[in-house]
Design brief:
The complex is a heterodimer.
Chain A (H helix, E strand, L loop, with lengths): L12 H11 L3 E6 L5 E6 L3 E6 H5 L7 E6 L7 E4 L3 E5 L4 E5 H4 L8 E3 L12 E7 L4 E6 L3 E6 L5 E6 L5 E7 L4 E6 L3 E6 L4 E7 L15 E7 L2 E6 L4 E4 L4 E5 L6 E7 L2 E6 L3 E6 L4 E6 L5 E6 L11 E5 L3 E7 L2 E7 L1
Antiparallel strand pairs in A: 1-2, 2-3, 3-4, 5-6, 6-7, 7-8, 9-10, 10-11, 11-12, 13-14, 14-15, 15-16, 17-18, 18-19, 19-20, 21-22, 22-23, 23-24, 25-26, 26-27, 27-28
Chain B lengths: L1 H16 L1 H12 L5 H6 L2 H4 L8 H7 L2 H28 L3 H70 L13 H7 L2 H4 L1 H4 L3 H65 L4 H10 L4 H16 L4 E6 L2 H8 L2 H18 L7 H12 L6 E7 L5 E9 L4 E9 L37 H8 L8 H4 L4 H6 L17 H33 L20 E7 L2 H6 L4 H5 L8 E9 L2 E9 L9 E7 L3 E2 L5 H11 L14 H19 L32 E2 L6 E2 L2
Antiparallel strand pairs in B: 1-2, 2-3, 3-4, 5-6, 6-7, 7-8, 8-9, 10-11
Helix pairs in contact in B: 1-2, 6-7, 13-20, 23-24
The chains are: A mainly beta, B alpha+beta.
Chain lengths: ~350, ~700
Amino acid sequence: MERAVPLAVPLGQTEVFQALQRLHMTIFSQSVSPCGKFLAAGNNYGQIAIFSLSSALSSEAKEEILHFSLAHDGPVYSMVSTDRHLLSAGDGEVKAWLWAEMLKKGCKELWRRQPPYRTSLEVPEINALLLVPKENSLILAGGDCQLHTMDLETGTFTRVLRGHTDYIHCLALRERSPEVLSGGEDGAVRLWDLRTAKEVQTIEVYKHEECSRPHNGRWIGCLATDSDWMVCGGGPALTLWHLRSSTPTTIFPIRAPQKHVTFYQDLILSAGQGRCVNQWQLSGELKAQVPGSSPGLLSLSLNQQPAAPECKVLTAAGNSCRVDVFTNLGYRAFSLSF
Amino acid sequence: MSSESSKKRKPKVIRSDGAPAEGKRNRSDTEQCLSPLAMILRPPQLCGTEGKYYSEEAEVDLRDPGRDYELYKYTCQELQRLMAEIQDLKSRGGKDVAIEIEERRIQSCVHFMTLKKLNRLAHIRLKKGRDQTHEAKQKVDAYHLQLQNLLYEVMHLQKEITKCLEFKSKHEEIDLVSLEEFYKEAPPDISKAEVTMGDPHQQTLARLDWELEQRKRLAEKYRECLSNKEKILKEIEVKKEYLSSLQPRLNSIMQASLPVQEYLFMPFDQAHKQYETARHLPPPLYVLFVQATAYGQACDKTLSVAIEGSVDEAKALFKPPEDSQDDESDSDAEEEQTTKRRRPTLGVQLDDKRKEMLKRHPLSVMLDLKCKDDSVLHLTFYYLMNLNIMTVKAKVTTAMELITPISAGDLLSPDSVLSCLYPGDHGKKTPNPANQYQFDKVGILTLSDYVLELGHPYLWVQKLGGLHFPKEQPQQTVIADHSLSASHMETTMKLLKTRVQSRLALHKQFASLEHGIVPVTSDCQYLFPAKVVSRLVKWVTVAHEDYMELHFTKDIVDAGLAGDTNLYYMALIERGTAKLQAAVVLNPGYSSIPPVFQLCLNWKGEKTNSNDDNIRAMEGEVNVCYKELCGPWPSHQLLTNQLQRLCVLLDVYLETESHDDSVEGPKEFPQEKMCLRLFRGPSRMKPFKYNHPQGFFSHR
């Protein structure tokens, strides 16, 4: 029969280009809106998409993408949300957007700031943003191996923390004492005191035999902290550290380098190369591995906004154009797609 | 006397009783102290002077029953007393006792008389009471009956009223003009506004009148129009007759002028002959011929048009269309009769039928499209009469003889050179939806088995022939349309030219690719650094099925980019121990649609886009950022530039790979490229972007 002949979908030039663009998309960053109902995701083309979690999770499961806009010239590596703004950064600049306006089309950025770089040939990227609520400031870190503190009230850069010898991958805040942890390509996790602007502690993870993996490199790709405990991973194995004694306590048995880690209740969630979101007991046992739809994951986001308890989900994104949504920790419910 | 006394004594006793006795005494006073007995015995009537007859019935009316009752009670008491006295006397005994007893007996008798009288009166009263009750009852019955009659009448009237209210008049179904319109348009003698404004009944009547009036007028108009139409039809008939008589006359004039033309060497001789032949073309080919000639004359001198085939056959085909049809139906009928008898020939018959169905018109149109480098694209257009579609056969001839590389086999083959000129137009399926039913009848599964012989029925071919097949209406009659053809002529001719040129360019490039040389033209040199160490070592075609089975091409297949109309190749790039396999999808729409690469690196384990972000980034560099690799228009260098870029990317990948300190000895690939930074960003990208004049590598 003529109609039984398998046919390719007729694709024109633009369709092919769009398909290729989607195929090579990487979603680097996510951030949940202060109302908890929307999720912003930034990709390697500098686009930021706003997904409506509430409508995607409602019984009708409506069209979940609200719109996306070209926000940056380069990739959007990091995003955080304050109670009114979405801050996004990537190509050396941090931009602020009003959440209330992001939900509409054609939104313009509220302001943009560039940290004072010691200029080189290329503009260093910003890999991590961190909000310090106590002093209403934002810490930026990335390609120029320094931590810049920006006062959110005035928009001025107040101090620079120097110490890393290679670029910085990640930041974490110790809630109780005003201390910031940073991990970088040089393989060191540095602990900074914000009051004195001094480095107080350095852990060179790759020098500990238990967790060093020279074939993967030294870089620290992710870290998270909870009171005296810190978990970090990357080139070296994913390891739980006791900060006061700076000793590794648990080494998690996973070979793939991890790109994101976070504490959740009495579990540690981590993701990296490979399709799965890993759930660990603090003792080092693998509690579960939940497969997602991307071949590699770069960021996890737990929506714990009290304003929207019905939207309490875990979202994971990485080397694909899809953001996986886990309604409970054990199972991928659906994917939001760019 | 004693009775008197006793009578006198009596009231005394009664008097002590109180009020009723008092009333009695009063009366007895007024009646001059008549004894109660006398009262009884002498009815009031009789007490009067004129009483002619005595009737107890009449007496009853005059007497008070209450007083009768008193009397009765009194009489009974008297009787009891007398009895008691008699008993007393008797028990005492004596002489004079008898007299006294006698006296008392007489008194008793009187009392008994009174009692009897009272009894009679009571009976009469009872009877009277009964009579009265009966009378009243009868009266009530009569009233009741009357009431019921009245109620029934009321009900009946109500029914009548509702019947009237529910009455439906026919005029309600008539769709009348609206009220305002009515008052505006109707003449005053119908509308009578002063009467009808207040009275809805009159108003409705008037509106109905107006409606009738209007309908009468319209009917009149209709009749007029009909007669008008008749008249015009007659006129047309007359004119037709005149025109048909004109034709033979004109023909004879033409015939007469032919010798004159020949004698004078008129210039339209040659063209006229072709036009003469063109008259025998089927409509779609004729449209194509006219439009192509027009386009060639006006816009493109490199296009030449010719008609091929036998005119006589076409003439023979054209003359008896009805006869042949009859024959067909006859033979059909015959066949039905004979099939049972001649079973073995069934297959042969089907074959004949198929041949008949796929029959081409004996005439065809040849288009020769000359490109800049003297290569020519020959297109032959055919018309399949029974399927009502057009097909095309293509052939490319080049100025010089080409050495055909193995991998370029499909590039210029007539089967694929024109594939997907427009997206999705692979020319293997009939564009006429009606054909499917015809195929089902004779058992043709798909037209694609016949395209090599018949030519490809591309959609653009149908459009050039002015054939339009809408998808929604499969049975629609198909008309050859000049405007459709004209609107597609220019774009299609341009597309054809670019297609041939890009295929010829690829053809040349493949020859050197097979020898491991990636040809980079001088105007694209700036895209790459001077020193590229990685080398292309292999360039081969692969089958579509083999491509689908490769483990690292799943994403492309899933994205629907690996259709069977594409061409598939496999490239192998080597540097030292590292081998990079690249599976290439070449869309027939190259170079406007870029080739798609999927990579698999064999070096310290197998690395693909799923386990190495940098391999993924390398694919993105060639697939997504292809626009900077296009080179000068019409970007025929795209494929070779992409391959060369892959070599550069592999160099960068290998040279920037972090050195494992634990392994002794020097690095296999020392870093020769100038890089600003080795890694950047959360996914640790390598510096793949080449900056031309400075010659260093940076991150995108």
